[in-house]
Amino acid sequence: MFKMKMIKKACLFVMLVTISIAVAASADTAVFRNGTNGYQGTNDNTLDDYWSLTGYNAGAFTELGVYQSYAERVNTILKFDGLVLPAGSIVTGASISLAKRGGSGGAFNIDVLQISNDNANWVEGTGVWVPALDGESSWDYMASPTLWTGDGGASGGATTIYTLAVDSAQEDYTLYNIVLPNALAQQWVSGGVNAGLLLRVDPAAEETKNIHFVSSELGPEGWEYKPTLTISYDIPEPATLCLLGLGGLLIRRKK
Question: Does 8 score more than 60 pLDDT?
Fold first, then answer.
């Protein structure tokens, strides 16, 4: 008798959950790219560790460099601000696409790091190889003259979340996709801390590696190649909660 009651409860629960999933959720996709649907929230910057350039901003470049040689390292930082999804949205998938625009060194890996929450206040510079001003980011600063928290510029305290395989020999405007953890995208769209991402050549690479991506500053003729964040999401309908609540009541009544 006890086993039969448990089987009935399990079947009832599965049936209600199945019904709720089938009829009580709507799915959609949101695209965030400067110039698309009025969105203007992309911030990106090149950080150059080369002699006296560590304190200079390069936020107005139309390209984002990711470079490593024995004498120079170049990282890219990128974030999408002002992300808005319908209330109650649940992220089911997220990715960032970047378009190649030049490079050398063949095939290699790029580490994609989540910048530490302590360094979330960086903003994009407005010049090219000019000293970073108050609020502008450079290799040394997230808000000049405030140092980045941790060693290694924006890399300090950052956590690797994805490894991107690239090939500088591929044609320009080849698209590369960075897959984001759903939880991170959910944090961004829910108003949580958004420190953005840092891209760097895998430190294990010994030879010179170099690739460039289109930045958000590229003119309107190439708007479709600008950094693009795509988020898929579901919106649970009230029916989901009602069905699950009804299931709970029926199960309690069976006890």
Answer: no
CB 54 within 8 A of CB 192: no
Same-domain check for residues 86 and 1: no
- With helix as H, strand as E and coil as C, how does 175-196 read? EEEEECCHHHHHHHHCCCCCCC
pLDDT-based confidence at 205, cuts 50/70/90? confident
- What's the number of CA atoms in the CB half-sphere (13 Å) around residue 145? 0
Are 5 and 104 within one domain?
A: no
**Residues 124, 199: one domain?**
yes
Residues 31 and 105 both lie in one domain:
yes
pLDDT at residue 241 above 60? no
Q: Tell me the pTM.
A: 0.84
Residue 181: both structure tokens together: 């953890």
Which pLDDT score, from 0 to 100, does residue 25 have?
74
Question: Do 119 and 162 have their domain in common?
Answer: yes
User: How far is 196 from 62, CA to CA, in rounded Å?
Assistant: 19
Residue span of the structural domain in which 18 resides: 1-24+237-255
